[in-house]
Design a protein that fits this description.
The protein is mostly helical. The chain has helices at about 5-15, 20-25, 30-40, 45-55, 55-65, 70-90. It contains six helices and no strands.
Length: about 90
């Protein structure tokens, strides 16, 4: 499993002090880029960002310590697999 990026988490927390929480999670796409390195063979960047945008609340919960890193990754990995499966199904039909 991908190691928890504590330094990115801390940076997001600092950004939350000067901007909207949701914007802080997305500032520089650092967290998104970090996770994407694990799944890039299964999903393109644009689709991944779309998926992540629907999970902004979970990203915030992780930053605030309300959701464990492993739980967050499981949610994201499951959605990537589901998206990949649905793309393959539509291709095969």
């Amino acid at each position: 499993m991908l190691p928890e990026p504590i330094e990115i988490k801390d940076e997001i927390k600092r950004m939350m002090e000067v901007m909207d929480e949701k914007l802080a999670v997305w500032y520089g796409n650092k967290l998104q880029s970090y996770i994407y390195r694990e799944v890039r063979g299964m999903i393109d960047w644009r689709s991944f960002l779309e998926l992540m945008s629907r999970r902004t609340d979970e990203l915030l919960k992780w930053v605030k310590g309300e959701v464990a890193w492993e739980e967050l990754l499981n949610i994201i990995y499951r959605e990537v697999r589901e998206r990949r499966g649905s793309n393959l199904d539509s291709f095969l039909v």
